[in-house]
Amino acid sequence: MGVTLTLGRSLRAASERDHAFQIPHSKFLIPVPPYTPLMKRCHVALIVLLGLLAATPRAQSGRLLVLNKEDATFVVVNPDSGAITGTVPVGQGPHELIVSSDGKYAFASNYGSGPAPGHTISMIDIGALKEVRRIDVAPLSRPHGLAFANGKLYFTAEADKKIARYDPAADKIDWQFDTGQNTTHMLLPTKDVRTIFTSNISSDSVSAIQQNADGGWTQTVIPVGKGPEGIDLSPNGREVWSAHSRDGGVSVIDVAAKKVTQTVDIGTKRSNRIKLTPDGRFALVSDVDPGELVVVDTAARKVIKRVPLGRSPEGVLVAPDGSRAFVAVNGDNLVAVVDLKTWAVTRKLQTGTGPDGMAWLK
């Protein structure tokens, strides 16, 4: 049988009992030194130290991956210190970024700059910090939105009104779908990848492209507000939230019914991206013109906070644990870190010129 002593009271009590205590069912006495002032000071110092350790936030394991549009670079960033631990050159005007399911590769859509449309996607070995392929998707052009599922890369070809799928193992595009909608910008698969939603900016629509039992695909065009751009899926998979870049609204789409159930006016001037927190409580919208992050209470369907960030906030990424958001403030060449409990900007990370697309690596 063992004996447990708690600091302070047990030591003091033992010292007051002739500085000894007896283990039950034992003939032995173990001497305990008197509870001296020095022991008391050490005891207090230990309690203070343990309290400080408990109150100190733990650094989150993981790495932040960022694309810099003007630099045409992919960078790996320590999200706690802001240190850049790796840089890889990519194609011109990289916009969106996604990581493969196994965490080994990152894919960057090289959208192009100005009037010159891009037609490549960079495949990056994250561990080696090396671009292993510059995937040419021509005749498709303006690759933009990305998703990775079931070992394959899905992307939008904005200039061609299409989405397509690239197989890294075979190194080829093995599927395409024509949306017929103008400026097919972002894409968002459901968790089972049986339905893919796209935002079609110039057609004021969201497409729901669903796989049939025979393997074919059919499309439902869902009218929404003006200039739908940012799009995200609720954590429970039941809703798609589509932020309109030209009328200050957000459409809430029922995934099963494939129709808008509510339009929420959030008063944005030019929304760019929308991301829901892992618990589904908040929708975070980057508003380019006023330079704010708009926080929407998803249950109440109303704005609860506007967080000033700087010039032209664009990409938004929420850390997997839901503790903070990273917002690419493109015009100020930094990534703002926002605490999702206090809604305060806690750090500004200098990642390069023109940050936009981001991804998280565990």
List the helices and strands and how they pair.
Blueprint: H1 9-16, E1 20-22, E2 29-31, H2 37-55, E3 63-68, E4 73-77, E5 84-89, E6 94-99, E7 105-113, E8 116-125, E9 130-136, E10 143-149, E11 152-157, E12 162-167, E13 172-178, E14 184-189, E15 195-200, E16 205-211, E17 217-223, E18 228-233, E19 239-244, E20 249-254, E21 259-265, E22 271-276, E23 282-287, E24 292-297, E25 302-308, E26 313-318, E27 324-329, E28 334-339, E29 345-349, E30 355-361
What report would you give on this structure?
- The protein has helices at 9-16, 37-55; strands at 20-22, 29-31, 63-68, 73-77, 84-89, 94-99, 105-113, 116-125, 130-136, 143-149, 152-157, 162-167, 172-178, 184-189, 195-200, 205-211, 217-223, 228-233, 239-244, 249-254, 259-265, 271-276, 282-287, 292-297, 302-308, 313-318, 324-329, 334-339, 345-349, 355-361.
- It has 362 residues and is mainly beta.
- Strands 5-4-3-30 form a 4-stranded antiparallel β-sheet, with no helix packed on it. The protein has a 4-stranded antiparallel β-sheet with strand order 6-7-8-9, with no helix packed on it.
- Strand 7 and strand 8 (116-125) form a beta hairpin.
- Mean pLDDT is 89; it is low at 1-30 and 48-59.
